[in-house]
Amino acid sequence: MAKAYLREGKEVHRVPVSFRLNGAQVSGFAGESVAAALGALGLTTLRHAPRSGDARGAFCLMGVCQECLCRIDGARREACRTPLRAGMEVETLG
Fold it and tell me: pTM of the predicted model, to two decimals?
């Protein structure tokens, strides 16, 4: 189990979990946002703009811009507002 510490010295436990990203088995930490997990994996482009084709990814990280839309367990969801859990299926939209 990975450990991290807050400034006050209190220990925080981060539980590693496996999930599937575009068919590949990857890992992140339970409870972090899917957007944070994807960013930690180096994935910044989650979809492309419908008109211009420009790359889009997590921007506001609070669910307002909807630039981080992904297909998560078969439904379109905002990656920044979806907590990661073991066994999750995540597909980018572009």
Answer: 0.85
